[in-house]
Structure formats: C-alpha cells, structure tokens
Amino acid sequence: MAMAIIRPKTMRRRLPSWVSPSFVIGGAVVLFWLFATLFPHWLSAFSPLDLAGRRLQPPSPDHLLGTDALGRDVFARTVYGARQSLPIAVLVVISAVLIGTAAGAIAGYRGGFVGAAIMRLVDITLSFPAILLAMAVAASLGPGLGNAAIAMVVVWWPIYARLVRAQVLEVREREHVEAAVAAGASDFRILTKHILPLCWTPVLISATMDLGQVILLGASLSFIGLGARPPTPEWGAMISDGTVYFYNWWIAFGAGMAILTIVLGFNFIGDGLRDYFDPRSSK
Amino acid sequence: MTAAAMTIAPAAAEPLLRVRDLKVGFSTGSGTLLAVRGIDLDVSRGGVLGIVGESGSGKSLSMLAALGLQARNAVVSGSVHFDSQQLVGRQRKHMRSLLGSRIGMIFQDPLSSLNPVMTVGDQIREVLFLHDRRLTGKGATARVLDLLELVAIPQADRRINQYPHEFSGGMRQRVMIAMAIANDPELLVADEPTTALDVTVQAQIMRMLRELKEKLGLALILITHDLGVVAGHADRVAVVYAGQVVEEAEVHDLFADPRHPYTRGLIASIPKLTATGSKLYSIPGAPPRLGAYPEGCAFHPRCIHAQDICRTTAPPTMAFGGHRSACHFADRLPPWDRGNEAERQGQNG
C-alpha cells in the first residue's frame, strides 16, 4: 500500500508572533509612501512646481501644509518628494548589496591575500563617518542626485561585504558544502548555489532597515546642497529651505515628517522580518 | 562473480585504490601536527574495505585527504593512486572530474549534508549535470526518478520536488546515496553512513549499500567505529589507531585471530548479550592527543602486553599471509579467546 504523504494544514487562529503591531504600522507607512511614489497626482491636487498660491501661507484646507517662500504647495512637494527619495534609496541599497555580496563572498570563500585586501578596503571605508565620506565623494563628483547616489553606494557596500563575509565563513564549513565538493562542483557553483542562498537572511533584514537609513543620508546630502538641485521637490532640500524661514515652521514640517515616518517604517519592517527569520533572537 | 572477487588477495590484481604512506598534518604556530602518520591501504575492484578506529584516530581524515577533501590548513603527503592516477597533489580542478562521477562519497550526517534550500530532485540533478553536459532536463529527471527508485524512496515522482526538511533521517541518507551513485561510480566512500541513524534504519541502509554494491559492482570503503557493521559487511578490515594502521586482515581472520592488542581490546569491548551482570570492558586510558604521540608504539601506554622495546621502538609491520599487524609481539601474543581477553585485561587495567 502506498504511503500517503500528509501535509499538516496549519490552522492559524492567531496571527503569527512576528506580525507585531509595529510591523503592521511600518508596513502601512511604507505602503503609503510607495503609493505616493507611484501615484502622487492622486494624493495632491497641485503639482510640486506650480506656484499655487500666495507665499508663506500657513496650513489651511486649501493648502494642507501651507505654501513655501515661492508659493508652492508644501503638501504636494512632500508627496512628490517620495518620487526622489524612495527609488534612489532602493537603487542604492540594491547596488550596495550586489557589490558588497560579491566582495564579501570572494573574501569569505577565497580568503588569502585577495580576501585580506578586500576586507582592509572595507575597514578603511567604514573608518570614515558615513556622512563625511559621502559628502567628500559627492562633492568631488559635483552636486546632483545621481552623484549623491553613487556616493551613498560607495559608503554603503562595505557594510554588506562584512555581513556576507561573516555568513560565508560560517556556511562554507557546513557539511552540505563538503558534500558538494565531493560531488565535483566548481567553486563558483558551490558559492552561488550552496553558500550564498543560505546567507540572504541577515542581508535582507539589514537591507530593509538600510532603506530608511539611505533615505536619511540622501536627504542629508540634499540638505547641505550636494544632492537634489532646486527646484526638485526633495525632502532634504525642503528642510534646508525651511531653515531660512524658521518661523514658518510648515515649510520643513512635511518633509521632516516624511523622513521620520519612512525611516521608522522601514525599521519596523526590518524588526518584523528578523523576528520571522530568526525567532530566537527576539527579546 | 562477486564471491570470487572477494576471495582474491588484494595483491593479485592492481587495486582500484592504492594508498601508500599517506600523511596528513596541520600546520600550527608550533610546527606541523601529524594526524595521519603514514597509512597504507588497498581497495580492490568490487571489494569492501572497512576502516575502523576511535573518534580522532584519523580514519575519516585519511580518506578525505586521499580524495583531496581535506581542510584548507591540512598538509598531505604520500601517494594515492586511483586506477593508476596519482591523486595527491592534484589540483582541485582536476579532482572535480573524478569526484561525483567515478568516486562517490556519503557523509556521516544526512541531516546536514543536503542543501536545505534546494529540492532533493534538484540536488541529484545537479550531480548528474556536473558530469554530463549533454544531458537534457527531461533525461535528468528520468534518471533522478530511477535513482530514487533504486534507493527505495516511495512516491519518487512526488518526493523529487520536496526539500530535505520534509525527509526523515533514513530517507535523507538514501538521497545522499542516490547522489553518490548518480554517475555510476567505481568507488563509493561511506564515512560513518549509519552513525546518525536509528538502529533499525541503520540495518536498512547497510543492506541497501550491500545490494547496490552487488548490483553496480562498485568498491566500497566503509569508515566506521562500529565493529558490528564491519563484521557484517566488509571483506577486509583496517584498524586505525593514532593515525596509523595497526592491523589489516580479511574480515574473518581479524575477528577469528586478532594479532594486535588494540584490536583485541576493541573486540573485547563489544557488549555481549549473554554476559549479564558482568562489568562492561573498556580499554584503559585514552587515545593520545593530536601531535602528542608516545614514543615507540603509540599504543604502549594502554597495552597490557607492553615491554621495554614497545616504549622505545616503533613496531615494524609483520605480515602473516594477507594479515598484517604492527606489533612487536604480533607472532607471540597469547592465543585469542574473547572471554579471557576481557578478564585478563580487566585484571591488569
């Protein structure tokens, strides 16, 4: 008689523990900003570049967050700002993950001189405060969002290189890797098929949290004039504008809240992912 | 056919695997520590060689090193000929064409020897593709199903898409075996294939290995610390102590007339069902630490027959036909009697 393979149907009465309130809130916030990135015109009646009303109006039903020094709608600029920050943050993190993973994987798997050289480069890069190094790179490349993005990748890849190297060092000693060697697999195949797929968890968690951090760094670069150029609606640049009109608090308010919520949102999601992938480490 | 092959003395034909003076050391800050100190072994085509020894005796390490699978900091010397090709010192690139195709390997722990994020089917397919680039996807799947059937995994067409965590320990070891024999190897190295399994499953796996050996005509190296497994399944046995082969013989000769005190101690340590109430025997002392081998015979501090010569001079290997023993007194040991051995050693230890 053939044995039946029974798949237990897990009955979920309660939500799994990693779906915490903070994870839900973080998810909702990030979804909101994602929506704002894709369909900003549905959220705001004004264009971010329109001179929509009188200058420096405080918040009112017409202009939810008032108008800035040129009479542009602050709410519209905040909503459209997501279009600058979010895609660039995603691009920067993906690039940093790819570069860092490749470097960390080679350093961890090969070791030796090449590995040492890569890791010293990582150490050197990480020994600078991120914002300082990013400023230096961005300043030498010239202002602009593209150059700011390159600067952020330069600052960020070493974090993933370290993370992936540590994972590779651990996973490469596992028995299934030895079994793959005994099966005659090439180094490249072992690395890509048998080691790296087991290294993604911390990278994914870290990348989620870093999305928020990169948005913050990007805004910082724009704030000091090394990122987005006017009149681009960018959060860091908007806050920078707000400093000139200190008593018209609403000019910087939207952008500030945007950065605050999106950074928190990504952190909450990262926390939730960590609880999901590695329940032992929570609390 | 196989019965005839089993009775041929290993010297009669060119062995499939011939290991001579294999040494494996680890370089540390204070010099090189030798873990395998010159091992000679022969495996004939279609034969089964059991390698027995305590944990840390170097039995696994020597076979891994022979196949170029040693740890990165290990230093290997000596010669290993597989089908007349020297393996020691070969580049890994060149080892790859042999490993997984002509030489298969099964590991101790089937729980961790499978990639947890690849389906079982993909893992077996991978081994096939690694050594046959012309294989089509369809052909590979058919072969995988054949292999799973060969190792008696029920509902193979369904199991093929499952992940290792959906398999029991015994089933996983079957998958490992399927991977090891996927490319019809001539030599299968099984490193403690049953240690991590339940006793009932152990028997199934061992029976299957023997059947596969008959069916596919492969030679088998069985690395184990279980004398029972060796007695039941090996043709020849090599007993390893402190990185050296202390005794090597046909399996029947070894158990009927062990010529080395260590082998005698090992056999005497097997618990007997009939001897209820008697104290369980164990060899006194502990195996030497890596690199801290006693002078002379490495076994002398634990040996009840030890004389002065054992403390100063490493024993030569004496041969009695196909029976070799590295003991100064191999020809002068008292007649073997398992019951008395335990008693005698018990009194002295």
Helix and strand topology:
The complex is a heterodimer of chains A (283) and B (349).
Chain A: H1 21-38, H2 40-43, H3 74-110, H4 112-127, H5 130-141, H6 145-171, H7 175-182, H8 187-195, H9 200-223, H10 235-244, H11 250-277
Chain B: H1 2-7, E1 17-28, E2 31-43, E3 48-53, H2 59-66, E4 74-82, E5 85-86, H3 92-96, E6 103-106, H4 120-131, H5 137-150, H6 156-159, H7 169-180, E7 187-191, H8 199-216, E8 219-224, H9 227-233, E9 236-241, E10 244-250, H10 251-256, H11 261-268, H12 308-312, E11 318-320, E12 323-325, H13 338-348
Parallel strand pairs in B: 3-8, 3-9, 6-7, 7-8
Antiparallel strand pairs in B: 1-2, 1-4, 4-5, 9-10, 10-12, 11-12
What would you say this structure looks like, in words?
The complex is a heterodimer of chains A (283) and B (349). Chain A is mostly helical. Chain A has helices at 21-38, 40-43, 74-110, 112-127, 130-141, 145-171, 175-182, 187-195, 200-223, 235-244, 250-277. Chain A has a single domain, classed as MetI-like (MetI-like fold). Helix content of chain A is 68%, strand content 0%. Chain B is built from 13 helices and 12 strands. Chain B folds into 2 domains: 15-239, P-loop containing nucleotide triphosphate hydrolases (Rossmann fold, 3-Layer(aba) Sandwich); 259-348, no CATH class. Chain B has 349 residues and is of the alpha/beta class. In chain B, the strands form 2 sheets. Chain B has an 8-stranded mixed β-sheet with strand order 6-7-8-3-9-10-12-11, sandwiched between helices. Chain B has helices at 2-7, 59-66, 92-96, 120-131, 137-150, 156-159, 169-180, 199-216, 227-233, 251-256, 261-268, 308-312, 338-348, and strands spanning 17-28, 31-43, 48-53, 74-82, 85-86, 103-106, 187-191, 219-224, 236-241, 244-250, 318-320, 323-325. Helix content of chain B is 33%, strand content 22%. The A-B interface holds A 2-3, 5, 111, 174-176, 178-187, 189, 193-194, 197-198 and B 67, 69, 72, 92, 95-101, 104-105, 107-109, 112-118, 126-127, 130-131, 154-155, 158-159, 176, 179.
